[in-house]
Design goal:
The structure holds 2 protein chains of 2 kinds. By secondary structure, chain A is of the alpha/beta class. Helices cover 46% and strands 14% of the residues of chain A. Chain A has 12 helices and 9 strands. The longest helix of chain A has 14 residues. Helices cover 43% and strands 18% of the residues of chain B. Chain B is of the alpha/beta class. Chain B is built from 16 helices and 14 strands. In chain B, α4 crosses α5, α5 runs parallel beside α7 and α9 packs across α11. The longest helix of chain B has 16 residues. The chains are: A alpha/beta, B alpha/beta. Chains A and B meet through α3, α5 and β6 of A and α8 and β11 of B.
């Protein structure tokens, strides 16, 4: 059998630089915005999309994503509805799609049923921040593989090299480089100690591509991230932009993406 | 059957460490070092010295004659309410601050519900000269004002948690986020047997002094080490874990865990986790959790801020699952009545959390010869306002 790279890895083969990945919360700002958000992001030139599954207690997230999650839950979002909304997404969207969410809603939905639904929907990868690597390797790795789902791991400035190497051997998607010791949320610029960390990881020559996330929220921080990694992930800043009261959703999305790619 | 934690951090199918990568180095450091640290002779010497001379241990095991007559059995009260700061919580904070010092941490954070753990944390931080920040649900700050003021006098910063139900669960979320943002210089003193491994085991070990003393004191007083019942209230479950710990492998001892029924289990306003919950993951461990069908955590309700938590510690989930402990629940009203009743029969005003344990005595059938230990986990001074308001409503 010829090795077929998964669609996430294929993306990095085709475009190794300046990858822009955007996170948004499903069902936010309005319940029915999920599909149009994805389609508009693709049309605006985004390379990869992380669809957030809202959870009541998102401990790795800052205020912005806590609020968008809370709003999405109030709007009535849940996994069953999300898969219904995404049922025909692959008729219009061809870029890689990742689901990002906490473990408990997935556990209650049924992990295998969840993986199967992801496969049928055309989801390519998963980011589950509170699923630790040991638990993944022991309990879920073969299940994810069966349904062709890449598990994306996070690394932080505190992650030891040995563990980064272990993560590198256990994913074929990309490595999510958390830019600083923090929860999600746009911060002021990028510090020197962060640059040292970016350089350290870059010098490790990992087999996986790297995307930098947490605190990336404008053209300048996006550019810096792209200098040290294959691209960057924007979440909270995007949520803030689409959460603004004025304007149509499509316009807000297009304007935001244009502003990121401005430099 | 094994009721303590295994090497992977599990109690049967419950427990584990479901944490984001950002917390991994801190949790791993604790996992690797906590047993070695707390078993060191110098640690034990300092811990025991502080428990004796600062906390005031051993706390009395008091034979409650009038209460025993009411229930036609022999009831002993383990007087954790007489600990410095008024509850069992300080057993754990003393232990954890010694761990934090040995890990070279400079700052302490904590979550608190009723404020007892916050006060106990602020106290040991003052004692050791460490900076202290306590997250407390905004709603809890309003109903436990005296404890907020106590923490401030002790030099702690009290940060209101304004998300969700603004109670203990949300304070815990905020504390975990703070730890993610400050991983290197800060230790998080979790106040109950909840959270990722090794917290449930570490906290249980520090609280286990309660049951160790009960055994000794029973032996000295009635020449038998084992009671027939041990009764304790459960929010997250630290006082219960401590009171049960040295009886876990004694099958003749019936363990009774009392949850907060709130306005009634079926009322929609309850914190009776085992009655209403099912397996789920919250705050880093797999446990029994009150949640919607979709896995969103349900906001619990109880008149007592300390029992107002949607989960229970994984050790208790395991004790429930294996039926090693009996889980019962009592309503707000039953707990309040029991609080007033204990005040009048024994001259002890219990914390409203603790009053739940006493209310549960009505649900148990005792033989005349039965020896029953109730863990009197905290005193009611902090709850005076709730007692007064409740009394006025009844008039």
């Amino acid at each position: 059998m010829i090795y077929q790279p998964n669609p996430i890895r294929q993306l990095f083969i085709e475009q190794p630089q300046n990858i822009l990945s955007v996170y948004f919360t499903a069902g936010y700002p309005s319940l029915q915005d999920t599909v149009s958000t994805i389609e508009t992001l693709q049309a605006a030139g985004v390379n990869l999309i992380e669809i957030g599954i809202p959870f009541s207690d998102p401990i790795a997230d800052g205020e912005t994503i806590q609020q968008s999650s809370q709003q999405a839950l109030q709007n009535g979002m849940n996994l069953t509805l999300l898969f219904e909304q995404l049922a025909n997404i692959r008729q219009t969207v061809h870029i890689p799609l990742i689901l990002m969410g906490y473990m408990n809603p997935i556990l209650q939905f049924g992990v295998e049923k969840f993986c199967k639904k992801c496969f049928e929907t055309g989801i390519n990868g998963l980011i589950i921040p509170d699923l630790p690597m040991a638990e993944y390797l022991q309990t879920y790795k073969s299940l994810f593989a069966q349904y062709q789902l890449e598990n994306i791991f996070l690394i932080t400035p505190q992650t030891e090299d040995e563990r980064i190497r272990l993560i590198d051997t256990n994913t074929q998607g990309f490595i999510y480089m958390v830019s600083s010791a923090s929860v999600t949320g746009a911060k002021q610029g990028i510090s020197n100690s962060q640059l040292t960390y970016f350089q350290r990881i870059k010098a490790m020559n990992l087999q996986n591509p790297l995307l930098i996330g947490f605190g990336i929220g404008n053209a300048s921080t996006f550019q810096t991230a792209c200098h040290y990694a294959n691209g960057a992930i924007i979440g909270s800043a995007f949520i803030k932009a689409v959460g603004a009261k004025e304007g149509k959703l499509e316009e807000k999305i297009k304007n935001f993406i244009t502003s990121i790619k401005a430099l | 059957m094994n009721y303590t934690v295994n090497e992977q951090g599990y109690y049967g199918q419950f427990g584990g460490a479901y944490i984001p990568e950002m917390l991994y180095p801190n949790i791993k450091e604790l996992q690797q070092s906590y047993l070695t640290l707390i078993n060191e002779p110098t640690f034990q010497a300092e811990f025991q010295d502080l428990l004796t001379n600062y906390v005031g241990r051993p706390t009395p095991l008091y034979y409650a004659k009038r209460l025993s007559a009411t229930y036609h059995c022999h009831i002993f009260l383990k007087r954790e309410d007489l600990c410095h700061t008024g509850a069992h919580k300080i057993n754990n904070t003393i232990g954890q601050i010694l761990v934090a010092q040995r890990l070279g941490k400079k700052k302490i954070i904590a979550e608190t519900g009723a404020g007892q753990h916050g006060v106990a944390t602020a106290t040991v931080c003052a004692l050791m000269g460490m900076e202290c920040m306590v997250y407390m649900g905004k709603h809890d700050m309003e109903r436990q004002k005296p404890n907020v003021e106590r923490m401030k006098i002790l030099g702690a910063t009290v940060v209101p948690a304004t998300s969700g139900s603004q109670t203990l669960k949300d304070a815990t979320n905020e504390a975990m986020r703070h730890w993610i943002n400050n991983p290197t210089d800060t230790h998080y003193i979790i106040g109950s047997v909840v959270g990722p491994h090794p917290y449930p085991d570490m906290v249980a070990r520090f609280q286990a002094v309660i049951s160790a003393e009960i055994r000794k004191q029973l032996k000295a007083q009635i020449n038998r080490e084992l009671p027939d019942y041990v009764v304790a209230c459960v929010g997250g479950g630290s006082n219960a874990a401590g009171a049960f710990y040295h009886f876990l492998d004694e099958p003749t001892v019936q363990l009774v865990a009392v949850e907060a029924g709130g306005k009634g289990v079926q009322s929609g306003l309850s914190a009776a986790t085992t009655a209403l919950g099912r397996m789920g993951i919250l705050h880093g461990s797999k446990t029994i959790l009150m949640q919607t069908e979709d896995g969103q955590v349900i906001e619990p309700y109880s008149i007592s801020a300390g029992l107002d938590y949607p989960g229970i510690g994984p050790i208790h989930a395991h004790l429930y699952d294996t039926q090693r402990a009996v889980f019962v629940n009592v309503t707000d009203d039953e707990a309040m009545q029991a609080g007033f009743s204990l005040s009048k029969t024994e001259g002890i005003i219990p914390a409203i959390e603790t009053a739940h344990a006493f209310a549960a005595l009505d649900q148990l059938e005792f033989k005349k010869s039965d020896v029953v230990v109730v863990n009197l986990s905290g005193r009611g001074d902090k709850d005076l306002e709730t007692y007064i308001r409740y009394k006025n409503q009844q008039l």
